[in-house]
Amino acid sequence: MLQSKKYHIAGFLLLAVAQWLLPTQMIWQEEQVAFKGQTFKFKTQPIDPNDPFRGKYITLRFEASTFTTANNGSPKWMRNDKVYALLEKDAEGFVTIKTLLKKAPTDQSDYIQTNISRINADGDSSHIILDLPFTRFYMEERKAPKAEKVYRAASANEKEDAYAIVKVFEGKAALQDVVVGGVSIKKLVE
Amino acid sequence: MKKLQDDLIDLQQSGVISADVAQDIAAYYQAKAQNSPNRLIMAFAILGAALIGTGIILVIAHNWDQFGIWTKNAFAVLPMLAAQLLLVYAIWKKPQNQALKEGSAVFLVTAIGACIALISQNYHLPSKLDEYFLTWVLLVIPMIYILGSKAASLSSLVLAVSFVFSAGFGGNNAINPNWFWLLLLSVLPAFWQLLRSAQRSQFLHWHTWILPLAVVLGFIACYYKEMGFVSLNLFIIGSAFFTIGKRMAEKNNSLQVNGFQFIGTIMTLIILFMFSYKATWGSLLSYQVDHGYAFILNRLIKPFALFFSLAVLQFGFKHLISRQQITLFEWVYIPFTVIFLIGLEHEIAALFINTMLVFMGLRLILKGAKMQHTA
Are the Cβ atoms of A12 and B87 closer than 8 angstroms? Predict the structure, then answer.
């Protein structure tokens, strides 16, 4: 009986270790990006006023999620392709996509691994829409309606900058904050 | 107790039982009443625990934004740690206490899901429901065999169905929903063991409902784009369920009404009603027009495999299935399959189905009348 109990406990402890591995790995990965990653500002696009917010998060759209390429260029892209988007900053300090690669670059770490959501043909060029992995900013449910109004007003008003602060490290991205008019949206809704 | 005492006096006076027997009966029921827990106190205890728990959660939620990331992470993993400690205590100190073990297992299952969800929210990770449910169920399935937990088995089935629905209807980027069948297979040995060992068990009863339901929902989620052909699969599976359910009822008295028989019957009737309409056959005919015979033959491989497997089991290994005669809902898949093949060419199949429904209705009425007469 005692032997059977020991086997049960041993088996369960092994299972418990496996159950701890996943959350630990999730936290470790995100903290690595936050600690070692470089900070980028992704400018947000005006959002659909009817559906800017669902549940406890703000849905974010970014200007940098669209990359334009020539139709006769190489390589050829298809929907759902995995891509590596090299990042660069424009004159105002916001992110633009420099180029898309099929393989991860080995000589730099300022790139994001993502997928192609869809491709819109436009004459001689194509607009590639990327599925960036940081399109939701979770907030406390009580504050969400106020945040929605602030975010929507800022997105519609071209004079006021609204952007997301994202840390990027070796293909992984970690969303840190959403800033409206130079102030964190969390402070704006306090 | 007063009513019992009055009844005992009546029986004594009528000479049915002696004074000694009446005394023994009264003493037995008195002892039983003392040993059973006071249900009102139990109800208040559960309500009190629920209110305290809700209060704690609400206080934490109200101040969530004030906490740093590491405090939030701690709140995410603490329930999981508490559940695991409770399970270790249950296994080590109270191995005979099944209620404690099953309750702790349920606590752990929910804590795992909450932990993954909270950490994803803390770091604003993209939401992919299919990945979330798949990860969750893969962490729960080992609990079925390591802990021998039936509650974990039921939870795994529910999570597996959640996965197949989010994957099946999730679009092109979703995980292949057919992984659901592997998850289902991994739960089957536990169900088989439960079937063989437990005579009267509420968990066994729940399994007989949730398992066939999971199979049906899994089929719909995996193959909803070709519902016409899936209906044939489901019809044959309905007959298989009825066969299995009938055998279970024979072997175990507590399973006289079981989910396999009920779901098998309902599925059969629903599909028959669906196919009693000409429009349904019309949409099936369009497959031939749009895709050709090769497409149709390809789609018929699975149902044919099911058909022959069930026919061999029912007629070749009859002694394994049932000692009684094969009943209507067990063999109805044979004429339905024949009519289905006719229906791929002509809408007259609708007339055959309606005739079949009338025949089945009459047969059931006659059976009911015969049972009434013999009772």
Answer: yes
